[in-house]
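Why does residue order matter? Because the sequence determines the fold. Keep that principle in mind as you read this record.
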Amino acid sequence: MPNDTYESVTVEIKHHIATVTMRATGKAPRMGPAYWREFPQVFAQLDADDTVRVVLLRGEGAHFSTGLDLGAMAGELAPLLLEPSLVTARRKLYDTIVQMQAAADAVAACRKPVIAAIAGHCLGGGVDLATACDVRICSTDATFSVREVRLAIVADVGTLARLPMIVGQGLAREWCLTGDDIDAETALRAGLVSRLSASPEALFASAQSMAERIAKNPPLTVQGIKHVLNDRSEREARESLRHVALYNAAFLPSEDLREALSAWMEKREPNFEGR
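Structure:
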């Protein structure tokens, strides 16, 4: 898997550890067309590669991911979101949501355990991706936010399916309904991450050390542990993901969504009317 194969990530495999680094576009990794297209391919290849025993996932530069690249995705999504009366548009919106869900699903489905090393921003789609990983650790500068609510979107790529199973219904509902920023200490107390490092450098060293310890264990046993732990949680996640795809295909297009997109482009606060 040479690094120049993919536009959205680099992949380095060494000593049974695959390090997947999401490429930064601008100041941080953002999820544009290449991400949604390539991530399922990347993790399918890692899943099939018997030399890989564990995957370490990180962002390039100072941040893990700032989520959906609205600018890059506008051309593809706008016609689906702004034509609510057309059945064909709603059907295509459903298919697009399912296709986008496949990115985080591929991480959860990969037989090899995946460690997310989270520095800086982990926002929106970044939370979708992080919650699909087996282990999440972060540095003290990490900030988490389920930002979709601020854009008049019901998060539909994995957070609503998996976050409640990690931090519990109470905190998951609070975070998803408010869109608040969650700092690293709060994430640790909630169980969203299992350990905290004083700096990004210490974080990546800790993630590498953990990956090495996992890679030394018998690989079939490690994969068996993930398989059994995923059995119930991923069955429930699949049902939730199907439900939210249907819900958003029916109800996502709205005047509030138009207002959110306009406010984002005009760099102003949105004024939502509930229509």
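Strands lie at 9-14, 17-22, 54-59, 114-118, 121-123, 135-139, 143-145, 182-183, 195-197.
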